[in-house]
Specification:
Layout: E1 2-6, H1 13-22, E2 26-31, H2 34-41, H3 53-64, E3 68-72, H4 78-88, E4 92-95, H5 102-105, H6 109-133, E5 138-144, E6 159-164, E7 167-172, H7 180-199, E8 202-208, E9 211-212, H8 238-248, E10 252-255, E11 261-266, H9 267-279, E12 287-292, E13 295-298, H10 299-312, E14 319-322, H11 340-344, H12 353-365, H13 386-391
Helix pairs in contact: 4-6, 6-7, 8-10, 8-12, 10-12
The protein binds sulfoquinovose-uridine-C1,5'-diphosphate.
Length: 395
C-alpha cells in the first residue's frame, strides 16, 4: 500500500511511519513541525531530543534500507496538500496532523483559535484532496475518546440507535467534550460524517484514549528513532508524566480527587490499531468508528501502580492531590465498549508492572534531561486574570 502519514513528526506519527515501512509498505510522511515549535515556544521540550524528520528518515534508511519520503509543510495550505496527493496518490491517509493537547487549547484566545483553525481546516483539506484526486483513498483519522466525555450511560462504539415515539434511527453517539481541543475532534467527526454521506468517501475515525509508552519495536532499533516523549503538563499524557515524576523525585500530580476514569492504551497498540484499520478499510460511504482503548483506569489507580513499581525499584514516590486545573468530573460512571478493534485482530499489550518497569528503565537513562520546573505550571481551564496567565509563563 501507499501510505500517507500526516503529522509524521509527532509522538505517534513517526512510530507509525516506521511500523508501515517495516511491513513493506511505501510511506510518505508530512509535518509542519508545529509540535517542535510549540515545545520551544512554551519551554516544554521532550525528554529525549529527537533529530528532525528528514534526519530520522535518513537514519531509518541506513538501518533498514527502506525509504520514508518526507515533506515539510502545512496541510492547512490546500495547494501544498493537493500537490502531495497528485504526486503520491496514497491508498490510505493517516491523519494525525492536529494540535493534540487539551491544555494547549485552553491557554488563551490565540491558542484556542489556532486549534480550531488547524484541526478543522486540516480535516477539511484531507477530505477535499481525497475527493478531488484519489476518491478511493481510505482516511484513517485519529479522534479521541474525549469526544464522548463522561456520560452517565454506556459509551457505544461511535453510534447509537434511538427509539422515540415508536420510530427508530441510528445516530452518532452523543458527544460532549471537556476541552476546546476535544471539541474540535467532535467537529472533525461531524465534518467527516457530512462528507461520507455527501461524497461517499471511506473513513475510519479512531476514538483513542490517552496513550502511554516510549518503546516500539522499530524505535528500539536506535535511540535516535525514539518518539517525542513529553512529560510536561501541556503535551505529556498522564502515565508518561507519572513515570518521569517518580524518577525525578517530584510528587505524582493527581488532579483533584483522582477518580477520573479514562480508557488507556500502549503506544504499541496504537500502531496495531491504525495498521489493522488500514489493512481492512472502511467501505465507500462508510464512517466506521472504533473506540481505541484496551483497558480503563482511574488516575488514582495509575498513581498507585507507578508508586508500587517505583518503590520496588528503590525510588521514594510521593503521591499528591493538586487542585484540579481542569473543569472535568472527578467522580463519574464510565463504561466504554471497545470490541471492534479486538475483532479486527488487535492483540493488546496490557499495563502490567513489567511494562511500567520498562518505562522506568528508559526514563532513568535520560534522567539528566528532566527539568522539574516543566512538570506542573497549572494551566487552568478558567483563568481568573491576565496576571495569572503571565505568572505561568505561557502568555
Ligand atoms: N491528569 C492528572 N494529572 C496529570 C495529568 C493528567 O490527574 O498530571 C488527569 C486529567 O485531569 C485527566 C486524565 O488524567 O482526567 C487524562 O489526562 P491526560 O492529560 O493524560 O489526557 P488528555 O488531556 O485527556 O488528552 C490525551 C491526549 C489527547 C487525547 C486524549 C484521549 O493528549 O490527544 O485525545 O488523551 S482522552 O483523554 O480519552 O480524551
Amino acid at each position: 500500500m501507499k501510505v500517507l502519514v500526516l503529522g509524521a513528526d509527532g509522538y505517534l506519527g513517526w512510530p507509525t511511519c516506521m511500523y508501515f515501512s517495516q511491513r513493506g509498505h511505501e510511506v510518505a510522511g508530512v509535518d509542519n513541525y508545529f509540535r517542535r515549535n510549540a515545545a520551544t515556544e512554551l519551554d516544554c521540550e521532550p525528554l529525549v531530543p529527537v533529530p528532525n524528520l528528514v534526519q530520522r528518515a535518513r537514519i531509518w534508511r541506513k538501518i533498514t534500507g527502506k525509504d520514508i519520503h518526507i515533506h515539510i509543510g502545512d496541510i492547512t495550505d490546500y495547494h501544498f496538500l493537493k500537490d502531495i496527493f497528485k504526486n503520491y496518490r496514497p491508498d490510505v491517509t493517516i491523519h494525525y496532523a492536529e494540535q493534540p493537547s487539551a491544555p494547549y487549547s485552553m491557554i488563551d484566545y490565540n491558542k484556542a483559535a489556532f486549534t480550531i483553525r488547524n484541526n478543522l481546516i486540516s480535516t477539511l483539506n484531507v477530505t477535499y484532496a481525497v475527493k478531488e484526486i484519489t476518491p478511493d483513498c481510505h482516511i484513517v483519522k485519529l479522534g479521541t475518546m474525549g469526544e464522548y466525555g463522561t456520560p452517565n450511560i454506556d459509551i457505544e462504539e461511535g453510534w447509537i440507535e434511538i427509539e422515540q415515539n415508536g420510530r427508530k434511527d441510528r445516530f452518532l453517539f452523543p458527544r460532549q467534550a471537556s476541552s476546546l481541543y476535544h471539541t474540535t475532534k467532535i467537529q472533525d467527526t461531524d465534518l467527516l460524517w457530512f462528507y461520507v454521506r455527501t461524497w461517499g468517501i471511506r473513513v475510519t475515525d479512531l476514538m483513542q484514549g490517552p496513550v502511554y509508552g516510549i518503546s516500539t519495536d522499530e524505535a528500539d532499533l536506535d535511540p535516535q528513532l525514539m518518539p517525542h516523549f513529553s512529560y510536561d503538563e501541556i503535551f505529556g499524557t498522564v502515565l508518561n508524566r507519572f513515570v518521569v515524576q517518580a524518577v525525578a523525585g517530584h510528587p505524582l500530580t493527581i488532579y483533584g480527587k483522582g477518580n477520573q476514569i479514562r480508557g488507556y492504551l500502549n503506544i504499541k497498540d496504537t500502531l496495531q490499531c491504525v495498521y489493522l484499520s488500514a489493512m481492512r478499510p472502511a467501505m465507500s460511504g462508510e464512517l466506521r468508528i472504533f473506540n481505541q482503548v484496551t483497558e480503563t483506569f482511574s488516575v488514582n489507580e495509575l498513581a498507585k501502580k507507578v508508586k508500587r513499581v517505583g518503590e520496588s525499584l528503590g525510588y521514594q514516590v510521593e503521591v499528591r492531590n493538586y487542585e484540579n486545573p481542569r473543569v472535568e468530573k472527578e467522580e463519574h460512571f464510565y463504561n466504554p465498549k471497545y470490541s471492534g478493534l479486538l475483532e479486527l485482530g488487535l492483540k493488546p499489550h496490557y499495563l502490567t508492572d513489567e511494562v511500567i518497569e520498562e518505562m522506568f528503565r528508559v526514563v532513568e537513562k535520560h534522567k539528566h534531561n528532566i527539568h522539574k520546573d516543566k512538570i506542573f505550571k497549572g494551566i487552568k481551564w478558567q483563568q481568573r486574570s491576565c496576571e495569572e496567565k503571565i505568572e505561568i509563563g505561557v502568555g
